[in-house]
Amino acid sequence: MPAAESYPDDLRYHPEHDWARVDGDEATLGITWFAQDSLGELVHYEAPEAGSTVTKDSSYGEVESVKAVSDIVAPLSGEVLEANAKVVGAPETVNDDPYGEGWLIRIRMSDSSELDALMDADAYRTHVAES
Amino acid sequence: MTEPGRAWGDAPLIFERSRSGRRGGRVPDYGLPKPELPPGLSRARAPRLPELAEPELVRHITALADRTFGVDTGFYPLGSCTMKHNPRVNERVGLLPGFRDLHPHQEDEGAQGALELMWTLQGILAEVAGLPAVTLQPAAGSQGELTGLMLMRAYFADRGEERDTIVTADTAHGTNPASVAMAGYKLERVETDARGNLDLEDLRGKVDERTAGLMLTNPSTLGLFDEGIEEVARIFHDAGALLYYDGANLNAVVGISRPGDMGFDIVHYNLHKTFSQPHGGGGPGGGPVAVRETIEPFLPAPVVVREGDAFRLDHDRPKSIGRVRGFAGPFGVFVRSYAYMRAYGPALREMSEVAVLNANYVLAKLRDAYDLPYDRHCMHEFVLSARSLKRDHGITALDVAKRLMDYGIHPPTVYFPLVVPEALMIEPTETEPKERLDDFVDAMQAIAREAAESPELLKEAPHGRPVRRLDEVRAAKQPVLRYAFDDDPAFVG
Amino acid sequence: MSYLSLTDDDRAEMLSAIGVSSLEELFEQIPPGVRFDRELDVPPALSELELVTAISNLAAKNAHAGVELSFLGAGIYDHYVPSVVDVLLSRGEFLTAYTPYQPEMSQGVLQAIFEYQSVICELTGMDVSNASGYDGTTVAADACFVAKHTSDRSKVVLAETLNPQVRQVVKTFALGFGLDVVEVPHRGGTTDPDELGAAAADAAAVIFQQPNFFGCLEPAADLAAAAASAGAHPIAHVDLMTLGVLEAPGEYGCAMAIGEGQSAGCPPLFGGPHYGFFAARQEFVRRMPGRIVGETLDGDGRRAYVLTLQTREQHIRREKATSNITTNQTLLALAGLVTLSWLGPQGLREVGETCMALAEYAREELPLEPAFEAPSVKEIAFRTPIPAREVVRRMRERGVHPGYALGRDYEGMDDVLLVAVTEKRTPDDIDRLARELEEVLA
């Protein structure tokens, strides 16, 4: 069952429709409700390997629906600790629960100052309204 | 036309018609001793090919044909694909024994008729493009694109110039950027302006000494002739770059405007679009390429040349980019397109004129029922948008397309070009009579009314085809790409 | 002659509906400087009758297999094309449809492609097949592109016994792909596994042909193993019509199996259109080039077919696509499906056995020495006492084309003639070839 539109207040957002949830020097990353809604039901998640490096504003993987493919842009830089195996096996998890079970990777942040450049939920809602 | 027209039933797979031990064709037995293969090379397990006698095989082919819609079945306005009538005389001459049974390694002296046909075809194509030299070799349009880009590489390498970027339009077919990447070039994308032309301001900032060239479809995939094409050509040529013409929409301008005269240096044709090679359910095609004198030395080898009254394949071309497919090209396609051109002669111009007339007529009749993103006369095709239907009634371009099937019409191209939301790209072609255009107009207008009055009818369309809308998510998530043979008694043991 | 349907009244009515007074107004969007202002200088229009006569006259100038007893092969083989293929080719629905973007309109052609994919997988021992590539040369370039993107290597190795045209096409496109091409010479007509394995170090892929261009059977399993142990994808270029008797590439460890489909279902037709087939193991499915049809269900739960995994393709992934191919060779691939289904497993094995028997008969009867010792299926290279091209010239004067002069492609092989047989050549035909050869060489 696809989730209803929401942009939780405890997350930070990247203009390419990605979110980050920060916990100490680690962060969990995913795509926003808006991103999954634009793509439609996901059928494939091309995940990065644990141990690889992601760079802010660069792509670290891909998600696909039947008729579209989208780079996933990293809102923050760091080392990949884990990719979400549940989403690899059942990509529609992202549609059902984009901010919970549908997370994409966990990273150890390499530069926490990058957080300052991300939007809060209010700013992102405005960004989405203008998209 | 809202009710299913007929009961289609199921079509078994050819494997499901198979019975172990049943025979189709037999192979002559000349009574010679049966040789043995060395161990390790011979097949351990027989392939599970279908086992059918001819009657069921013919019924199978017929059943599948019945579930397929072609131009022969009805109106097929698939934009940018030029689904025109395919004359049957072309099929007849394409399979004359003198062609069909001619081996491509035959010595030139034994293939004079074939070579003469190819040589004449090259000449007609050169005249149509306004460029002097032609290779017939590329297998289809996208291979023509890749060939053209490799020609650019060779041309600049020969001049000692390092250029690494190709400019394409945001309205370009996906083949353009894909070809650019396969040829090892970087991609630069230029935007379309409010009239549907290339945005010259944007373009000027993206062309410099690193630019190898432009790839452009003209008229564009919006069906609009680029009014600034002369300036576009000047910008590239002033920067020392080349212009490549994607011939997907050549059907709009044959005998009316020539790519070479527009300033293009390299042109590909789609013989299966403009020159009526049947599309065959997806192919074959033909993608000859024409070039200016300066690029001629780099053409793929071999090319057909004439020496006195004789014709031969010239393989000795030291600057050639090499070969892009086997032999000299898809010869059977050449025969059909040659026949098509010879049937028209200089009246090929009329072919394009009527293609443009037909498109503008349909556009005039539909402009009030759908959104028209670029309000100009079109060339051979045009793009409408279902944006208002979506906003007002939740009806998408896809719903319109599926509902057209219930009216016995193949849908147009949808969701392309990408610059138009809810795009419906419509190309009637010149071979349609006015009555069929009117049928289409009536159907499209009726669907626009249905969108307001009974949107569910559209959401659930089609109602009269062998299958309803498919679960494409399932197809992509759990791909079943071949017959599994599991538990099929015909294949046990 | 014209294929147009508008009457003068239609035109007048349509112009009026558009709101213009003449056709010329529609073309005002074309800048005057680039309008074409004269008549096209092309040959005059012909009626259908004149057209048939003119083109028949051209066809009659060719020395085709109906007027010359031909033993030409070298990549294109004159196998029998069954009459049921005509049923397919004459159905306008297949002939005049295009790529099945709208599955509800195209179930027949989609199902046929699915069946074709199944047959190709079964014959090659692979998991996935696409809906066809252009021909046996371009699928090799496709395979190199796949190999490059599924490894971090930028070299491909080609056996010299791989069809020269295939090697030429790979070299043409390797430049754009950023791949270096290395060739491994033959040793006595076949490829040495150790030599191939050494060359395969740091290579993304190795392509060899079975049977190879000289007609010789390669030690295919050893070649595949040598490539694999060097970390390169082994790719076999094979002939469908031999796969009733020869082992499937999937059974000897190949990553991909490719080839020219012409021998199954297509006449020689002076080089095309034919079809290339491309099959691979499951792990390559997301890097496959071209169309792929999958099975699914419709809204009512009925089995149905659809183009799938389309995010690989150019119309969605654009510059990141696995290939730029769009139009392919569907109709010819379906001719292959019909031919292979008509033959069935028994018939396909008989084709291979009959060819092998005829090839052995030629090996014994022809007044020439085989150039190589390796076994063959349907093609044998013979040494000629005079240049092979001269043999061809003299024999053609007698209405027999004796085969392909290998000196056209290989240095130092001017005295080698490649003689091909299919089930269409009879022992009597081979007797005649032997007799005429004796006379021209006397």
The averaged pLDDT of chain B comes out at 96
* Approximate helicity band of chain A: 10-25%
CATH superfamily of chain A: RNA polymerase II/Efflux pump adaptor protein, barrel-sandwich hybrid domain
Number of domains of chain A: 1
CATH class of the largest domain in chain B: Alpha Beta
For the biggest β-sheet of chain B, the strand order reads 1-7-6-5-4-2-3
Short précis:
The complex is a heterotrimer of chains A (131), B (493) and C (442). Chain A is of the alpha+beta class.
Notes on the structure:
The complex is a heterotrimer of chains A (131), B (493) and C (442). Chain A is of the alpha+beta class. Chain A has helices spanning 33-39, 85-89, 93-96, 121-130, and strands spanning 12-14, 18-23, 26-31, 44-46, 53-54, 59-64, 69-73, 78-83, 105-109. The relative contact order of chain A is 0.26. Helices cover 20% and strands 32% of the residues of chain A. The mean pLDDT of chain A is 95. In chain A, a hairpin with a 4-residue loop joins strand 6 and strand 7 (69-73). In chain B, helix 4 crosses helix 10 and helix 5 (141-158) packs across helix 6. With 493 residues, chain B is an alpha/beta fold. The longest helix of chain B has 20 residues, at 434-453. Chain C has helices spanning 8-18, 23-26, 48-60, 84-90, 92-95, 107-124, 138-149, 164-177, 193-199, 220-229, 314-317, 330-365, 388-396, 427-441; strands at 69-70, 128-129, 155-159, 180-184, 205-210, 233-238, 256-260, 276-280, 293-297, 303-307, 369-370, 379-383, 400-401, 404-405, 416-420. The model of chain C has no long low-confidence stretch (mean pLDDT 97). In chain C, the strands form four sheets. A seven-stranded mixed beta sheet of chain C has the order 2-8-7-6-5-3-4, sandwiched between helices. A four-stranded antiparallel beta sheet of chain C has the order 11-12-15-14, with helices on one face. In chain C, strands 1-13 form a two-stranded parallel sheet. In chain C, a hairpin with an 8-residue loop joins strand 11 and strand 12. The chains are: A alpha+beta (131), B alpha/beta (493), C alpha/beta (442). At the B-C interface, helix 1, helix 2, helix 3, helix 4 and helix 5 of B face helix 1, helix 2, helix 3, helix 4 and helix 5 of C.
